Amino acid sequence: xxxxxxxxxxxxxxxxxxxxxxxxxxxxxxxxxxxxxxxxxxxxxxxxxxxxxxxxxxxxxxxxxxxxxxxxxxxxxxxxxxxxxxxxxxxxxxxxxxxxxxxxxxxxxxxxxxxxxxxxxxxxxxxxxxxxxxxxxxxxxxxxxxxxxxxxxxxxxxxxxxxxxxxxxxxxxxxxxxxxxxxxxxxxxxxxxxxxxxxxxxxxxxxxxxxxxxxxxxxxxxxxxxxxxxxxxxxxxxxxxxxxxxxxxxxxxxxxxxxxxxxxxxxxxxxxxxxxxxxxxxxxxxxxxxxxxxxxxxxxxxxxxxxxxxxxxxxxxxxxxxxxxxxxxxxxxxxxxxxxxxxxxxxxxxxxxxxxxxxxxxxxxxxxxxxxxxxxxxxxxxxxxxxxxxxxxxxxxxxxxxxxxxxxxxxxxxxxxxxxxxxxxxxxxxxxxxxxxxxxxxxxxxxxxxxxxxxxxxxxxxxxxxxxxxxxxxxxxxxxxxxxxxxxxxxxxxxxxxxxxxxxxxxxxxxxxxxxxxxxxxxxxxxxxxxxxxxxxxxxxxxxxxxxxxxxxxxxxxxxxxxxx
Length: 565
Description:
The protein is 64% helix and 3% strand. The chain is mainly alpha-helical.
């Protein structure tokens, strides 16, 4: 799958997950803010896990023969399958994507997504650096009143880590900062607060630190950056901030602060904000002017159920994973649709002259080995003799296009023999064999001897046999000892196609191969070459053979050798 397609699939899965989470949020709107915040965090974790699910979980596969094609296209495919010419295709509707144009559009969309994601992450980084600078320049609040208030508030909310208390004239709202070395930053106006208001503010900020809300905020920023084109992720991020503050308010009330008094303190803190932008640093803050009315109403009407226990939060995360994992595994459908679109675009290139953009697309598509449902492709899937390759992949259709354009394609296919992708080398070898390009024999011999992919070695052997390349006899004889039985069998078959009697001694040495499929192909090759010197070894092999299919092939080879002078 291309990068742009992967991003599109990620956004689609994310949108589906966020839509489900929005429905759950509606159903849970009358529950406690603590529970809603735990749900928002679980949804966030699952959203961030979606890109990694596909790497760890097998794709959910299912039969999709229709695959967005109408009945007319299927009829066209059936008609094309009945035509005698192996490479004639039915007229198809315009492709869903246009090869090179689609590639350029995909790169453009990828660039736009990447630019947006980097901009959002960069903005967050700038804000974090500004916060770090504020902390360095802040004035520590030392002395008995401040220390005593901090100790009381820390004990009230159950925070066990040491916290620094500082003030800054730059901020106008209390902030909770720091993952490893937590800090509560108060505005200069805090010096005028009474003891009760200071206690309420500190409890609120210390709850943020106890729960690690700043870390959750950073994860929310990352999720929003990855899914920024989706409006639902912006809605989810706003809901998470709202639930975070409401749940903090609930925790303050649970710690013993009366709701009416805390509401007055919240209004007092908000009244000091003036027109300043309190969220420009992107850290958990106590209040903003736009949301204070809603929070005060929630405080006065609060139906608290106590803090959400850790076990409940873990349970919510596991429940989110149970839904998100299969959702992430649905990559298969989006991938199949994109592969089908690419196949159809490649089919359209068969009947047009190839410009440089089309050649680039074809070279790239050679390595695309995603399977496409055969009934979804309106063309005859047969073709020239083709070894044992999958019939319907973008790579195979790219190879068909090169074949359709004849000998002019040979230089590009020769270059593809050095491609880093095994699938591209495999398809290029197949196409060269179909084109009977004997000039490619040295390159194919190199692949046969050295390539790390057994499929590539096997198809290289097949191609050498197709072009009856006698110069490749030595390489094919060496391949009779390949570690993979499929390669040994194909090399034996290719030697039979070459029909060089000098290969008989090498074939006779592997007539007793441990694999029946190899012995059967060796017998077939000896029958193709048909020299009388093979008869004694063939008779001995026939007496010892236990596999019925191999015995039948040995009988045929014996007849062929006996009939030749």
